[in-house]
Predict the structure.
Amino acid sequence: MSRPVVRSLLAIVLVLLVARSARAEVDAEQVRASIERGVDFLIKKQNKQGAWPDFQQNYTGGVTALCTLALLNSGVGPGDENLEKSLANLRTLVPTTTYVTSLQTMVFCAAEPKRDLPLIQRNVRFLESNQVKTGERRGCWSYPSGGGGDNSNSQFALLALHEAERAGASVQPETWKNALEYWEACQNGDGSWGYWRGMPGSGSMTCAGITSMIIASGESGSPDAQVVNGKVKCCGGRSEDAAKRIDAGIRWLERNFSLNMNPGIAHNNWILYYLYGFERVGRMTARRFIGGHDWYREGSEMLIRHQDSLAGFWTGGAGENDPHIATSFALLFLAKGRRPVLIGKLTHGPDDDWNHHRNDMANLTRYVETRWQRDLTWQVIDSAKSSVEDLLQAPVIFISGRDAPEFSDEEKKNLRDYVDRGGFLFVEACCGGEKFDAAFRKLMAEIFPEEEHRLRLLPPEHPVWSAEEKVDSKYARPLWGIDVGCRTSVVYCPKDLSCYWELSRFRSSDRLPRAVRDEVAAVNSIGINVLAYATNRELKVKLEVNPAAEAADDKVERGKLQVAKIVHPGGCNAAPAALGRLLHVASDNLKIRVNTEPRELSLTDDKLFNYSILFMHGRHNFRFTPAERKQLRAYLERGGVLFADSICSSKEFTNAFRQEMKMLFAEQPLTRIPVKHPLFSNELGGHDLALVNRRVPEARKPGEPLKAQMQRGEPILEGIQLGDRYAVIFSPYDISCALESHDTLECEGYSRQDAARIGLNVLLYALHQ
């Protein structure tokens, strides 16, 4: 083996090792694999009757119900042979204890709620009859043998009743009212909850208190929108007490934050039970961060680190030394916490003007879940603290208000960058918000000053009116939009939407007057239509860093040539088929296997390092964020190659690209690659490119037809050298439109044939690096 070849192999190994070490943080693929190992473990331990061994003699079916619930949330659905056996087993059990009945109910609600609705309703009546009716613990639940009630049993009962009502069962209002009063009474002065009233707070029981308050207050408290004398009254009637108690609990968790121990519990017992509750707090309060911590990422890292690498199970202290229980709690955290984010609700001033209807996004998300038949979540996004990358965690951002919204210059810039990178803004003026309407229109003119980016009234034929459901014209609202790139990327409604989503909570909407119910249905249809149009129903699970564009299966396949396309705000999708066409050219000419599925990545995505070649093109002005520049430079210095071209020879994109490269490598300027360089020869197995054809549009007067002439000359490519290789190769003349066969007369660039030949030579050169 020659020394150059050995050096090349060593360089490749070094690049891979460095890239691997840079990806220390857990990613979506690691979580998926961890869940799969845990699921395999549970299934292997299931007996022929579809059950798992009971933890205690008096709790028959409890572990079976918990394991089944974990499997359901981990993607094992009805029809699976093992799941059907466990469901059949659970259907034979009669209610005897709070824990088992609650878990059994949650399983029925998650699996086949229509089929098991009679059993769900039976269990609801059992739980209601066993709620403590008198004394200072009125409203809680206990073990069957008595004891006066505790917060752990009470949490499970409320979780079951909550899911039961979502599935169509009826729960007595008095049950919710008594539960709310109980949880209010047993909260400690520091915001925490203990196992019993008066006990010091713990992490697991504080999580139980927060979620139980959310459930009970949501079912029995006053909503932020009401119907008075048959008419909808928006922005009123909100109860602050429950919200203050929930916030106090969150602050306690922030002060005592840990995902490696159960705060307040000795010997680190019940940590996985605590994580199961913490996931629920994060999801039900729509918080990605708690105490400044990305709780799902950190919790996932801890769980993956402590999972048995061979058998796939977890164990913990106390009752969690049973691997079936421990593994179920771990799977519930990993699986439920990774649910795709459907929409983010953006905070803004003045005060809490962004949140007049606090349940709007939760109810809209639930409505979409029922229609799309998949579990989803939503998030609150702090505009003042969020970067563009943070905003991109949500494919749609919802902005609502009554008064003029307050955004700093940096926040305005982030909103523009978010949209340019594929994000979508869904906006409403609520509560008769004339001030918001005027200020928002001014804001859009400031953020999108270009003439082509003007708010326009969306016509009836626009797909936003029919992407998912037909909207009753009687209740339709005017929708305004701004087109960015190839689609409408901002949709604005100057009339209330969130008010009606607030009223659409589960079965309570059935009790509304007919006219109000019909209007709620119409507004739900508007909401789901906008979301379907904005997302194409393609959503990313947690930890997939770039939600804007990435292939569903991101695992690099061995033996195939794969090139990733960079997502950026400079019109990166103006020629979407170009890269695929180039890879087909490589396959036909080199007789190699290629993968032409879209592999689109943000520059901040660590999966960048899985690819030896990146492709980038555009036709508009753009700028990278500091985080994008940092990662791109690291990628190039570690051996990667960036191949870019300016679509239709766009001066805007060319100038922006050159400026960004100058900021990246001031010491290594972008210069023309000599025509005698091996890149332009057939030395590497490609084509002799000494002379190529380039189309040059002719100047014309208004009204004259377009004309262009073909000029034959030397190819012009620019590059940045790092050591003895070109790490960046850029064509200021169009290659992409030619590859797409869209080489029109007004598009300056290489001929279709020569564009393919140049692209092929660049790929060969990059592969040899």
Notes: Confidence is low (pLDDT under 50) at residues 1-23, 545-556, 702-706. The first strand starts at residue 141 and ends at 143. The first helix runs from residue 3 to 22. The radius of gyration is 29 Å.
